[in-house]
Amino acid sequence: MNLSDDATFFLLRLVEQFPALWDMTLAEYADTTVKESIWERIAKEMNEEWPAYGPYDAKALRRFFDNKRRTYRLEKKKVESTKSGMPSSDVYKGRWRFYNSLRFLDASKVTCWRSVSTDACQAAAETMKVRPDIDDPSQTSDDAAAATDDQNITVDDPIAGKALSAMSRQGTQKKRRRSPHRLDEILAQRQTVLEKIAASVGQPASTTQQEDDIDYFGKVVAAHMREVPKDKLIPCQKAILSALEIYINKSE
């Protein structure tokens, strides 16, 4: 499987959000069914965000990630083998372009992760130092994976913004405009309830003390409703009328 750097960063960001795929301390890590379900979900998101390199399947993506994980471990071993007291020019800093994106493999606590039961997660956007001029060692041998230059060029992580936009689209739904026909139905329902209220009283409002009390109560309700936001007036009216209708039906 050949992916662009951007697509690879995006895939690694997705994998980071599912610790069951890489954290051996979790019970889910030993559950093959759970992990297969997660990889299917990741394949679906990759097909949606990076269709140019697809179609993707769970097995191919898992193998791709395994290759990147092996390369990361080789790079990490080189970093840890650096001894103190060595000249700064001799200190190896892990210059493989995906090194920083895979450091979550060593994290004891994940600040942003997703499980099988949830789709929403706020992805943490961060800037990573990467080397764009180094070929991906995982596509060749282990010896080639360890070969890098001495130069150190830094660029912004290209996946940070894209991961954020992808996750925000999942967690946010567009508001639908209320249909004019729906408004007509609400107004008609309100009129029906008002007619039931008038019928239940049994006498004209201008000649009874009972109607005057109701009138006063209506003014109190109206005063409170003026504090309700305009976009919530109709739901508020519906709730009040629904409560009245319960008592009217009981009195009948």
UniProtKB/TrEMBL annotation:
Gene Ontology terms: biological process: regulation of transcription by RNA polymerase II
A Pfam entry, by short name: MADF_DNA_bdg
Compositionally biased spans, kind Low complexity: 137-151
InterPro entries hit by this protein: MADF-dom, TF_Adf1
Disordered: annotated segments: 128-152
Positions of the MADF domain: 10-110
Source organism, top-level taxon: Eukaryota
Gene Ontology annotations for the cellular component aspect, listed alphabetically: nucleus; transcription regulator complex
The protein's name in its UniProt record: MADF domain-containing protein
Taxon lineage: Eukaryota, Metazoa, Ecdysozoa, Arthropoda, Chelicerata
